[in-house]
Amino acid sequence: MNAKAQTTSLTHLAKDPDWWRGAVIYQIYPRSFQDSDGDGVGDLNGIVSRLPYIASLGVDAIWISPFFTSPMKDFGYDVSNYCDVDPMFGTLADFDAVIEAAHSFGLKVMIDLVLSHTSDQHPWFAESRISHDNAKANWYVWSDPKPDGTPPNNWLSIFGGSAWQWDGQRMQYFLHNFLSSQPDLNFHEPAVQKALLDVAHFWLERGVDGFRLDTINFYVHDQQLRNNPPLAPELRNATIAPQVNPYNHQNHLYDKNQPENLEFLRKLRTIMNDYCAAAVGEVGDAQRGLEILGEYTAGNDLMQMCYAFEFLANDQPTATEIDEVMARVEEVAADGWPCWAFSNHDTMRHASRWGLDQHGLRLMTTLMMCLRGSACVYQGEELGLPEADVAFEDLQDPYGIEFWPEFKGRDGCRTPMVWERTNQSAGFSAGKPWLPVHSGHLKQSVAHQEDDADAILHHYRKAIALRRAHPALMKGRQEDMRVDGDVLTFVRATEGEILFCAFNLGAEPGQVVFPDGHWTNAAGDLRGAVEPSNKTLNLGGWQCCIAVKKGG
Ligand code: BGC
Ligand code: MG
Q1: Which active-site residues does the annotation give?
Q2: Less crowded by CB within 10 Å, the N or C end of the chain?
Q3: Nearest bound ligand to CA 86?
Q4: Other CB atoms within 10 Å distance of the CB of residue 405
């Protein structure tokens, strides 16, 4: 380690290495957050200008979706230079300014590293595809065709069709789990791992506090290229890929989830430890998501957190389902740490997905802030934004274009943030936004909501503040979860603090029997929260009660 690295790590070591546990992480999709130069695409300077707003939410960290050099076929999740900023988003100096400004507000910065694949425009791939014996020949997953010319096995791309793309130059197929312009890196090649660890090191040196790691269970593939077995129809579920996608018809035993993933994650963690950095690894698996989360976050030498898909499902989770998910976490990931999200840049916004009114949305927000785990809030979710309608002519997402109209892709959750009431594009850009601002969003702009005491934006602030005020909610144990109809109750406890949390996840009134002890209201004037009682409490539809035990 050079002298500068040593100073950086020492400064970081002075900080809380556990900062991520129970943190609330605000996800920024940079294209759609704030445009500063009128080109219709959000950028890093735009993020800096909106940091006071993000800090006002009371969150702990920001996660910025990819801003690296990219041909933007998958809007930045196809990287052609890991160690630079795409000119569309700004420069490395602009990124340094993001870090500095975020830190001045006490916000940690997590960047989104997409290590499983690169863009086909990455110089590594350009070199690799030239011949069978160049220095990077083995950096991607190349395979000869079967004798009949068809792909080597039955693996499928999440974005549609075979996971193999023919390359006329090498006269071989290459693997891609996503677009054919996102060739999969070969993690069996030590030089690839080294190059990727260098990328992590580069950004840690620049001062980032952690990573959101894209698709970490896809890093390594089965070297024997064995076929995935079919999955019985009754076992299929559409948590990772939409129902219409035959990707759901396979049991993904061999194209992902390989044990060697852990070896790479361990090396990455070693580097991160020097900087007190934390990672949330995205684990995409429709059948074994939580088990893999448990494996990848066990102990102290892998990921701190994994991103869970359970609450990204189509339907609003019921009290019973939440209880089942939490019981499963307890069973397979007792030692690990989940990171929950209701919305993100890949999924229909939950206000629409779950069809909830303001009462329901508020209650689910409060619930997320009380559950054991860290939590991601996706830009615009704090405004209660519904999914935007995007016409086929305006569609940008190749995933949506492929499966239209049964699945409309991800543009509906990626339309620009709405900041102001007056401006035509709601303060997002002085130019024409890359995706149209959804007209139905205009009346929910930040400016409207700041002036309205009842607005959901204020509810997010209060719910986040509630979590931050209680160590038991941030980092404590979660115990005694019970379900009675739509009513879910549980206890969060840590040394010196016990909280009882009760949620009515339905419109009908419900009842709660309080545990022994003397309880006082912990929720202040949080909308939807009622005063505790010391015996039976009636909860109206979509009401909750968060109570702290007197005397701990
Ligand atoms: C990201 C997606 C992206 C895919 C491929 C993910 O899961 O969240 O937006 O398309 O990985 O990189
Ligand atoms: Mg711009």
Answers
A1: 214, 282
A2: N
A3: 2
A4: 8
